[in-house]
Design goal:
The protein has 14 helices and 31 strands. By secondary structure, the protein is an alpha+beta fold. This is FACT complex subunit SSRP1.
Length: about 700
């Protein structure tokens, strides 16, 4: 029997939402780690009272009840895992894992049982549904009726908001069944009621998110933020983490409270409560409790009368009431000596704090990223200037965070910190003088030449040269890519080669005339290969045979529906993961059967491709023949056009002697009008035609009269 059992992709039901995570069962107890928030639930083996196995929507589920009344539900198990879990419970926890199915008769009349923090509606001995009373936000009573209202679940598209129970009257005197029902609910419900006096009040504290000044009233079970416009009540059970972070100016402190679920204002969700304090602000605090109560409740962590810095008092009280550690920055120190880095996230500037187990960015919007959810980090070149760089973080869920405009001087410190925390680095970045000290991460990246590193080194050398030149005060430009002398020489050579061709035009005109054709020639040369490229990119033929599937894909298509039926509600990504696991676990004999099918499909594809290629060749020969025919027709048309041109030229030459003869017979008016209209080509042509069309008899008679 193994000492531990581990299950991935298990879902824990918390306040109506299913949180994905990993479950581990060991001799000491049960541990569940939430993948989203990183929160760890630890149940000691000695606290377990009962274990129930039942069929649920996501396969099979495990319900654990503890001796102090707490209930934990985990879903996502396979039916085959029951025997393994049952044996483990018997061996290590000395508990029988009972099988209890839910009642699915559809009746709405039954018995309500209160067990610990759970309301169970039963028909006979079988439960129909269960309501964790911590989900209840309000309980109201009416005549023979009790109404339960629930907290809204932001993660779900549809949330159950209200349930009403009809309680029939009983004959027993002195006991109202409706009031008894309501009292049982309210004793365990998560109903926030500001009853009694606050333990202490902090007035007019500056809050960055939600923005404004708030009075903070500290109650035994919740925190009350009272502002001019809004009020927020925050149960201590929703507080996930506490952070105390020094500002870069060393004069202020951030106190950050991480919340899950977040506080809501309309459609806005605040996952972090950020308070800003001045280090110089002091306070004397007196708790609204007597000394015995303070000692009994807080066991020396708080005293009735305390004094000190305001941020110390707030953080100390919160730590004692929430019973969580306060996270502070670790050993990281930036270029300026501060424990944070100035950067921008999205549109706002803020501070990035490298912690011992994650990164936190304040303040707008606040972001907390744990190391265990980071897939890799990346050092990227700044988009606007080379004096800064971007720090990119991608999580295992695929979410990407880009912190931009980080000063170049911070690179070395941040790179060393990331490397020391053994985070996967996508590129090796700017760091110079780095030899083989970080080879342990070579496997995480592709082993190839880092062009980015070489380019950044080149730019660094250029910037150093520019800095040296500017320090001398010369003020001259040192852009090596621009050399005016060389360009002048090129122009002169072009001019000299064509100088003899245009002797009649002036120097300035010849410069212009010769430069223009050179530019045109360049454009034509550049465009030709582009046209060829465009022509070469032809679309895929839809009639071409499809490529054959691999053995795995053939198997997956045949078994997809079966996997879905075995795991109802499984997502597409989980289905592909599951299919991969099943394929990997399949025996060689079964795989060979699918390999044969894949081979047959490949042969069919090759045969179809041969037939397709023969058909495509015949089509291409047809198109070539049609092209040749077209060219032949074009040549014939061109020849006819040339013949017509030659005939028109001979006609004009035969008309020219008649024109010369008629010049002597032009009248004075004709000659003057001809000269005046020399610029009008149409008129001149018409007059010439008129002279040429004079009959020879008239010309002869004119000469005879002279």
């Amino acid at each position: 029997m193994a000492d531990t059992l581990e299950f991935n992709e298990i879902y824990q039901e918390v306040k109506g939402s299913m949180n994905d995570g990993r479950l581990r069962l060991s001799r000491q107890g049960v541990i569940f780690k939430n993948s989203k928030t990183g929160k760890v639930d630890n149940i000691q083996a000695s606290e377990l009272a009962e274990g129930v196995w039942r069929r649920v929507a996501l396969g099979h589920g495990l319900k654990l009840l503890t001796k102090n009344g707490h209930v934990y539900k985990y879903d996502g198990f396979r039916e085959s895992e029951f025997d393994k879990l049952s044996d483990f419970f018997k061996a290590h926890y000395r508990l029988e894992l009972a099988e209890k199915d839910l009642c699915v008769k559809g009746w709405n009349w039954g018995t309500v049982r209160f067990g610990g923090q759970l309301l169970s509606f039963d028909i006979g001995e079988q439960p129909v549904f269960e309501i964790p009373l911590s989900n209840v936000s309000q309980c109201t009573t009416g005549k023979n009726e009790v109404t339960l209202e629930f907290h809204q679940n932001d993660d779900a598209e549809v949330s159950l908001m209200e349930v009403r129970f009809y309680v029939p009257p009983t004959q027993e005197d002195g006991v109202d069944p409706v009031e008894a029902f309501a009292q049982n609910v309210l004793s365990k419900a998560d109903v926030i009621q500001a009853t009694g006096d606050a333990i202490c009040i902090f007035r007019e504290l500056q809050c960055l998110t939600p923005r404004g000044r708030y009075d903070i009233r500290i109650y035994p079970t919740f925190l009350h933020l009272h502002g001019k416009t809004f009020d927020y009540k925050i149960p201590y059970t929703t507080v996930l983490r506490l952070f105390l972070l020094p500002h870069k100016d060393q004069r202020q402190m951030f106190f950050v409270i991480s919340l899950d679920p977040p506080i809501k204002q309309g459609q806005t969700r605040y996952h972090f409560l950020i308070l800003l304090f001045s280090k110089d602000e002091d306070i004397s605090l007196t708790l609204n409790m007597n000394e015995e109560e303070v000692e009994k409740r807080f066991e020396g962590r708080l005293t009735k009368n305390m004094s000190g810095s305001l941020y110390e008092m707030v953080s100390r009280v919160m730590k004692a009431l929430v019973n969580r550690k306060i996270t502070v920055p670790g050993n990281f120190q930036g270029h300026s000596g501060a424990q944070c880095i100035t950067c921008s996230y999205k549109a706002s500037s803020g501070l990035l704090y490298p912690l011992e187990r994650g990164f936190i960015y304040v303040h707008k919007p606040p972001v907390h990223i744990r190391f265990d959810e980071i897939s890799f980090v990346n050092f990227a070149r700044g988009t606007t200037t080379t004096r800064s760089f971007d720090f990119e973080i991608e999580t295992k869920q695929g979410t990407q965070y880009t912190f931009s405009s980080i000063e170049r001087e911070e690179y070395g410190k941040l790179f060393d910190f990331v490397n020391a925390k053994k985070l996967n680095i996508k590129n090796r970045g700017l760091k110079e003088g780095m030899k083989q000290s970080y080879d342990e991460y070579a496997d995480s990246d592709e082993d190839q030449h880092d062009a980015y590193l070489e380019r950044m080194k080149e730019e660094g050398k250029i910037r150093e040269e520019n800095a040296n030149d500017s320090s001398d005060g010369s003020g001259e430009e040192t852009d090596e890519s621009f050399n005016p002398g060389e360009e002048d020489d090129d122009v002169a050579e072009e001019f000299d080669s064509n100088a003899s061709a245009s002797s009649s035009s002036g120097d300035g005109d010849s410069d212009r005339d010769e430069k223009k054709p050179a530019k045109k020639a360049k454009i034509v040369k550049d465009r030709k290969p582009r046209k060829k490229q465009l022509e070469s990119k032809k679309g895929k033929d839809p009639n071409a045979p499809k490529r054959p599937m691999s053995a795995y894909m053939l198997w997956l298509n045949a078994n997809r529906e079966k996997i879905k039926s075995d795991h109802p509600g499984i997502s597409i990504t989980d289905l592909s993961k599951k299919a991969g696991e099943l394929w990997k676990a399949m025996s060689k004999e079964k795989k060979e059967e699918w390999d044969r099918k894949a081979e047959d499909a490949r042969r069919d594809y090759e045969k179809a491709m041969k037939e397709y290629s023969v058909g495509s060749k015949s089509e291409s020969s047809k198109t070539e023949r049609s092209k040749k025919k077209k060219k032949k027709q074009e040549k014939q048309m061109k020849g006819k056009a040339e013949k017509k041109g030659a005939a028109s030229k001979s006609l004009s030459s035969s008309k020219s002697p008649a024109k010369n003869m008629s010049e002597s017979f032009k009248s004075k008016e004709f000659v003057s009008s001809d000269e005046s209209s020399s610029g009008e080509s149409k008129k001149e042509d018409s007059e010439e035609e008129g002279v040429a069309s004079l009959p020879p008899s008239s010309e002869e008679s004119a000469s005879g009269s002279d």
